[in-house]
Amino acid sequence: MTADAVLRAQGLTKRYGGLVANDRIDLDVRAGEIHAVIGPNGAGKTTLIGQLTGAVRANAGRVHLAGRDVTALSPARRARLGLARSFQITNVFAGFSALENVAVAAQARAGHSFRFWAPADRDADLNARAADALAQVGLGRLADRPAGALAHGQKRRLEIAMALVQAPRVVLLDEPMAGTGPDEAADLLALLGQLKGRLAMLLVEHDMDAVFSLADRITVLVEGRVISAGAPEAIRRDPAVRAAYLGTDEAAPGAAGAR
Amino acid sequence: MDEAATRRRRRLIYGGLVGFLLVLPLLAEAAGQGFYISFATRVLILALAASSLNLILGYGGLVSFGHAAYVGIGGYVVGIAFVHAGDGTPILGLLPGGTDALVLLAAAMAVSGLVAAVIGAICLRTRGVAFIMITLAFAQMLFFFLVSLRRYNGEDGIAVWQRSTLPGPLDLNEPVQFYYLVLGLLLALLYGLNRLVASRFGRALRAARDNEGRAQALGFSTFRYQLTAFVLAGAVAGLAGALLVNATGFVAPSYLHWTRSGDLIVMVVLGGMGTIAGPTLGAAALMGMEEFLPELIDALHDGAGDYWKIVLGPLLIVIVLFARRGLAGVIEAAAGAGALRLPRLIPRRPGQPPRRRRTRR
Ligand SMILES: Nc1ncnc2c1ncn2[C@@H]1O[C@H](COP(=O)(O)OP(=O)(O)O)[C@@H](O)[C@H]1O
Ligand SMILES: [Mg+2]
């Protein structure tokens, strides 16, 4: 629990009926670091992200964003305080163009939207920032394409552009490489590598190459509990982690090249 | 295809329609059919109401099944003010009655908007079917409340046998003046709506319609924008109600009946949800069919005119099935001259870029 944590979870617990999806999870993300959360399917990673953003109401625990207790705040309020996320299942505005998806993300961050007269899609400032974010993720040429018509890997990058344009304090990425082919995954890995250091990230990812090459710290979640947390090297050697992974069909962390 | 040509044709079609509305009183008088002026006035008033519903239904994605309530409340503002102007008693022991149109139209908008704010703040906590049911329930509550008001003749309502008064030489008793007033209000509303839905506010509203969870995750407090849209829609519906009382000379709880709310939804869907011109086209089509279908059917088979709704139903289904964006979509297709084309039978040559799809607003 260092002072420079931009995001801090304390004792987060979520129960679905009898199922404990998350059990007293403590975790923090420091400025500029990539903190990876790994664990088998159903471990509670997406639920954890939901609790951090406020989309999932926690049964217990607190969330602090930049030192401020945001536990009682709505997802929208937390987002406006600088908490951005991407979704495991691609979640963009299919009817909006790629540019407008990013521009609307910029708009959401730029204060209230009680502006009733000037056309939003001709807002030079929003469009410039959106175009810049699209260029950063390599979608500059597809700005006018309806988001629904983008290829899967392009949508994953669009999600990242929507987070980037918000200049967030911290971004939560839920399996940004989910469902991408090897080439697209390599592109995304390179992209995340470029962002490393500039942005605090909580990265949920199954791709162990990505996790071990990017992460500054790793937290391992199994059945809603943190079974291990620390530097990548320590996690790689942790017998508890190995045991947890051997029982599943997930790639064992440390089995180099496995995906 | 050619965007510029499409835009030109679209402008031509809508320009032609507006031009037709502008000269309609002259045509009707020339043909000695003055009746059509007051009929068209009522169509345009309902177009105002349907356009206001379209803001929340078409652009907000919120199916309010109680929108006639706000039309009715606006109507009752005029009716109640008229009753008290007649017997000199104050309304609720506070306000004087009156017949000043400018005051009454503003008051109708304010009261309807206020009621919409209260009802909207409650209903917007729900979504989907629950939202439909609870908006309907509130409208029904207001309906029965007005039925219970003996002072205002309960179910029979109020005969408002004098039209609201305008300053100077303006006079709502003049059908042509009344028509142009309503037309002016409608065109102003549609222009304003066109700006509104493209503004930051409109984009936030559309984002919430398309994907509310995503919009919230981006930082939009969607409830505020939806409630604002709900209040604006309620206020404009109130304006339509106040005008409608002047057009028909009475107001009664029937104004708020759920079938009236249903009619407004049909107008929006028939004309094209989420399009600026759609609700006006829908209002004209529905009221035109109500007016002329019975006669037409009678002419084909004497006495069958009473069953015109049997024709209306399937006709609506056909339009909704085949013109996804309603009549406005049909016009759009005509302007695009190609958007309605049948599925491509010959595959596109390889290497030829796919045609750019228009993004949805
Ligand atoms: N809305 C929900 N209702 C009931 N159970 C849920 C819900 N969301 C997630 N769960 C359960 O909680 C557990 C954790 O799910 P999730 O957070 O999606 O895991 P992960 O992202 O690590 O794969 C799973 O057992 C899942 O079935
Ligand atoms: Mg998940």
Q: Can you put this structure into words, describing what you see?
A:
The complex is a heterodimer of chains A (259) and B (361). Chain A is α/β, with parallel strands linked by helices and 259 residues long. Chain A has 2 domains: 1-82 and 169-259, 3-Layer(aba) Sandwich (Rossmann fold); 91-167, no CATH class. In chain A, 34% of the residues lie in helices and 24% in strands. Chain A has helices spanning 45-53, 75-80, 98-109, 124-136, 152-164, 182-195, 208-214, 232-237, 239-246; strands spanning 5-16, 19-30, 34-38, 60-65, 68-69, 83-86, 170-174, 200-204, 217-222, 225-230. In chain A, the strands form 2 sheets. Chain A has a 6-stranded mixed β-sheet, with helices on both faces. In chain A, strand 1 (5-16) and strand 2 (19-30) form a beta hairpin. The longest helix of chain A has 14 residues, at 182-195. The radius of gyration of chain A is 18 Å and the shape is globular. Chain B is mainly α. Chain B has a single domain, classed as Orthogonal Bundle (ABC transporter involved in vitamin B12 uptake, BtuC). Helix content of chain B is 69%, strand content 1%. Chain B has helices at 3-30, 35-59, 68-87, 101-123, 128-147, 175-198, 200-210, 212-218, 222-248, 258-271, 278-300, 308-322, 326-336; strands at residues 158-159, 250-251. In chain B, strands 1-2 form a two-stranded antiparallel ribbon. Chain B starts with a helix and ends in a 25-residue tail after the last helix. The model of chain B is unreliable at 338-354 (pLDDT under 50). The chains are: A alpha/beta (259), B mainly alpha (361). Chain A binds chain B through residues 53, 55, 74-77, 79-80, 85, 87, 91-97, 100, 104-105, 107-109, 113-121, 123, 144, 146, 149, 162, 166, and chain B through 195-196, 198-204, 207, 210-211, 213-222, 225, 228, 356-357, 359-360. The complex binds adenosine-5'-diphosphate and magnesium ion. Residues 45-46, 88 of chain A line the site of magnesium ion (MG).
